[in-house]
Amino acid sequence: MTKPRLYSGMQPSADSLQLGNYVGALKPWKALQEEHDAFFSVVDLHALTVPQDPATLREKIRRTAAQYIAAGISPEKSTLYVQSHVPAHTELAWILNTITGFGEAGRMTQFKDKSSRQGADATSVGLFAYPVLMAADILLYQTEVVPVGDDQRQHVELTRDLAERFNSRFGKTFTIPKALIGGDDARIYDLQNPTSKMSKSAESMAGVIWVLDEPAVSAKKIMRAVTDDEGVVAYDREKKPGVSNLLSIYSSLSGRAIPEIVAEYEGQGYGSLKKNLAELVVAEFGPVRERAHELMADPAELDRLLSRNADRANEAAQTTLAAAYDAVGLLRRG
Ligand code: TYM
To answer: Atom 34 (ligand 1): residue with closest C-alpha?
Structure first.
């Protein structure tokens, strides 16, 4: 039996992935690749929708790919490649742009948040069209499953709408994908501001844990995480956002259920929960960090591996792109 097709990606927008990317996406990806025909991309074209420094972007793209592999994504089992190495992504995105409503794209909450923060003049057309490029990523591979964190739910919904619209206008061309979103780990919050999502673009880095950070730095950030003055370890997202966030992270990294962890810390303050969580984070990220540095030390080998994987992706993508071009009535080159 053929395995279901799976697709996901991350932006190379920082020197390191953050804990939310790891817990919300990378860790589930690793398990899912066993039972799926998985494609994982470093979405460098998406990263260009906000200003990037050209000299460091290239390095960030390699670093992101290295972290995928270091965290356990196998470039043999899965297809792990760089989005811009497969031109069909932008080609299909253009076709999808022509069936996306202006109002529909304007309703995307991530676009609304970012554009209102930046102001209209600093907001590019690329940022507006960002979710359409994401739809192209997914639809090009006839994807069935899209494992993402909770913040990407609306983008996957748009992808489904566009696929259904295209199929009903032009005939069945795309598989309708489904988002696969975890539970408590699908949204990890900033350690200093536990009602905001942990993000690579947070204003302050004090509440963001980086996969590639020095272990001592990560441990210190966890010890300083904002909690409350109740001193009772309990899970309540509304009343105890800080402690609940620590429990979600603990649960994801230890593979244990939250009630079991709460029971273990009953009658203890937050100190021991934080100390043990810091140890878990250091134990999880230590080997990832070491392996990522080894891979980054040989960029030529990393580039060769990405190139081989891009060939595989290209082949799969070309078939769908040709079908979509045919369906809308473009003339085949003679
Ligand atoms: P990006 O680069 O912002 O994030 C990559 C993945 O990490 C998840 N994530 C989180 N999960 C839990 N808690 C958090 N604090 C947290 N922060 C990030 C995201 O949900 C995501 O799964 N648009 C996408 C990239 C993309 C994509 C795609 C994804 C482009 N094309 C096709 C899937 C399929 C993005 O910006 O992810």
So the answer is: 8
Ligand 1 contacts CB of residue 10 (under 6 A): yes
pLDDT band at 121 (very low <50, low <70, confident <90, very high): confident
What residue's CA is closest to ligand 1, atom 25? 10
Q: Do residue 92 and residue 110 come from a single domain?
A: yes
What percent of the chain has pLDDT above 70? 100
User: Are 231 and 161 in a shared domain?
Assistant: no
**334, amino acid identity:** G
In a domain, 162, yes or no: yes
Domain holding 65, by residue range, is 5-186+298-328
